[in-house]
């Protein structure tokens, strides 16, 4: 959920460790009308657009959906404040009145707080619970009554609460202070098994509460980590950052499989259009192989000039969504039966911060265009993102 066009090119390079100028035809290039013919890895090795990574090792020969009777998910993001407050009534009515059928609810939020009271010792050992959702059992009954498919969102490695309580599980500066990004947020260390187990404990309780799917977000190192790693103090192993992140995903899947819940992961939308982002430890294909659902965040506002041959991506939602899904299929088709359900996050907000002439007001037409692009690329599921949980009415879902 990273923003602002004025530094999108710099942010892209910071996040992925890839020079935008090297990105080729899969992404439409970075300069309008001048896309290079190929993509390059950071060391300059040519790669076919869309990627060609082969399936990794150490996984089962076939995926088995733990929720084979699940509906085709069409859902919305719901904060814990909304889930535990008056807005929930409006959101349930939206479910009742439309083809939307699912909610992704914060169970461990962007700050790192557990969003409801819990007596789970494994969670409280490291975590801190709030009472945003005062009665989780009542909420689950309410969702069941309205036939809402419940998905628990667990923010993993962006965890300011845990980083402050246990600096040894985070990244510290030489003076011992906990590192923060420009938004005063801290991350915890993906190399630490203790961090893995804490988040798995949260996920396991969510499964026992009745959530059908666990959606992990911020499954990565901080943005631009490769440029700051040498200046920070943290525990690490001989594994690469990609191996550490993929290791967590694989472990989560193994731990949650006996509980019969799906495992999904949010990932940067343009991850489908570029080589692996070694800097933050995200490899689109390796993560996808190990999950039941992959949710690329393909908000048109988050692409900079030139992607998919569009000058202002926010103003052409159909082209951006279609291009991103074509790239996603190209990246994942080679892994065959390992290919997860593709369920992207799409944009239901207006990106006015992009500045005059670079954005449009998003409403029914823009939502319809994104959904049509998904249908045209044979993607049947999607999630709507609006940070305030105010969703556009009368959309052709």
Write the element-wise H/E pattern from the N-terminal end onward.
Answer: HEEEHHEHHEHHEHEHEHEEHE
Strand order in the sheet with the most strands: 9-8-7-6-5-4-3-11-10
> What is the mean predicted local confidence, pLDDT?
87
Net shape:
globular
How would you classify the quaternary structure?
single chain
How many helices? The count is 11
- How much beta, percentage-wise? 5-15%
How many E strands? Answer: 11
The structural class is alpha/beta
- Return the CATH class: Alpha Beta
Mind describing the biggest β-sheet? 9 strands, parallel
Rg for CA atoms:
20 Å
CATH H level, superfamily name: Glycosidases
What does this structure look like?
There is one protein chain. The protein is an alpha/beta fold and 397 residues long. The protein has one domain (5-51, 70-385): TIM Barrel (Alpha-Beta Barrel), CATH 3.20.20.80. The protein contains eleven helices and eleven strands. It has helices at 8-16, 80-83, 87-97, 121-124, 136-145, 160-165, 193-209, 241-256, 284-290, 317-332, 364-376; strands at residues 39-40, 46-47, 74-78, 102-108, 149-155, 213-217, 262-268, 293-297, 341-342, 345-347, 382-385. The strands form two sheets. It has a nine-stranded parallel β-sheet. A hairpin with a 5-residue loop joins strand 1 and strand 2. The longest helix is centred in the middle third of the chain and has 17 residues, at 193-209. It is globular. Residues 1-60 have low confidence and may be disordered. This is DUF4015 domain-containing protein. Residues 75-391 form the DUF4015 domain. It holds the Pfam family DUF4015.
